[in-house]
Amino acid sequence: MSGSTIKVALAGAGAFGIKHLDGIRNIEGVEVVALVSRELDKTRKVAEKYGIGQATTELDEVLARPEVDAVILCTPTQMHASQAMACLRAGKHVQVEIPMADSLEDAEALAAVAASSGKVAMCGHTRRFNPSHQYIHGRIQRGEFNIQQMDVQTYFFRRTNMNALGEPRSWTDHLLWHHAAHTVDLFAYQAGSPIVQANALQGPIHSELGIAMDMSIQLKAANGAICTLSLSFNNDGPLGTFFRYIGDTATYIARYDDLFNGKEEAIDVSQVAVSMNGIELQDREFFAAIREGREPNASVRQVLPCYRVLHQLEQQIGH
Question: Domains in the chain, start-ordered, CATH in brackets?
Fold first, then answer.
């Protein structure tokens, strides 16, 4: 590292890249020195706004800079695995946004490169870091709460290919490989038990987007806990993912960084972590793991089982 400052490059100046830039502003000892994205004019504008010295459309240009310590990838899903492997082979620590791959073959290839790299390789499984889910994780670890069922709804209105900023996407999002990945990983993580059964059903394929717009997934952990996940791009209502934890001592409802009990009474999670922003907390873990020379929470190795389950589900629904 250049002195005590971690110099980082960020690839992908879309909605999620901006969330990372906003989070990193609150983290000491980290400097974003390069921004990579497809459209140079747009990239330059974002770089200027955040005081980033280099704006480019080429990831290779950034990987060739010896002073760049780490890369955060917020690029289209289809590029995640190959770009993450390129970063590791260039000797850079990498955090790749969820999903780290859209096939098991690519996920396993990335895990192999990560294992031999000696670098921090982390995937942006943000639910592990949201204060709401951290609060529940703490209760589980202290033996105060055990999951009997998780009931999860991941709902968007995305009949056209737009991103979270309402701008046209250059790629197609996916309910299984992207949105289900959050819950499949979180369920196993919170249950503290591997997934041993997984079933999936999907609705009709969209004529233009070429993907299923509705999906239903059932999971069972080795310890007996179950999870029901409903996903839709057709939902014209409250958007986002809503988690209901039904356990032996309580019921919890988590909405991103906020948490409620089963009676919809708010639970204060402001003291769980140093921030209420899950993305910032995820980035803090990445940089802390680099400084401390350790494996991060949500490392590529830790989340690989999730991608094995997604692969099983994909086989079931017949792709």
Answer: 6-125+278-298 (3.40.50.720), 130-272 (3.30.360.10)
